[in-house]
Amino acid sequence: MCSCPIYCINLNKRKYVWDKLMINEYNKTLNIQRFEAINGMKLDKHHKITRGHLGCWMSHHAIWKNINETTIILEDDIVIPDMFLEKVSAILDDAIDLQYDIILLGHNYTNNNKKSVSKLLNSMKWKFHGTQGYIITKQGAEKLCKLVEEDYPGKIDISISKFGKKGLIDILVVKEKLIKLHKKYKKYSDTVRN
Length: 194
Known about the structure:
By secondary structure, this protein is an alpha/beta fold. The chain has one domain: Spore Coat Polysaccharide Biosynthesis Protein SpsA, Chain A. Strands 2-1-3-8-5-9-7-6 form an eight-stranded mixed sheet, sandwiched between helices. The protein has a two-stranded antiparallel ribbon with strand order 4-10. The longest helix has 14 residues. The N and C termini lie far apart (41 Å). The relative contact order is 0.20. The mean pLDDT is 87.
């Protein structure tokens, strides 16, 4: 069974979203650690992205800087399926002989440039949208931290996509989405706010 640390990014002003996620009895058993998101609305305006996107970047980046082992990172506006850890364990077993830095668990991507690499996984060399759920290795976190140590280059998902396309990080995606956006929250993203 997967014993990876699990972090869920949640803004203090949206604690009710975390509370609703944790009402589910199964979710309570997962030992998910709430990570207080950085509120981009309290930051200076960025020259490339909205303050909301900047807060999102900085929240993910803050977790990456402290990763010591393969870790699962979730955003709070999701639905976690039953048997989540069993499914993640199957994905990690499937990836055991593959080279990867990130495995996307929930995402939207174009069908271009994907290639089946195992029973459950495709390689990803093109643009995807969504960082709502992913597995990241310690090495992957270190690579991403180095790539953004100077500046946040754009929206987090598009930037990671570009890093993957350039061969700077190795991205795998699950063939069947494990994490899905909660339909109640997906149209109220704080990242679009400036």
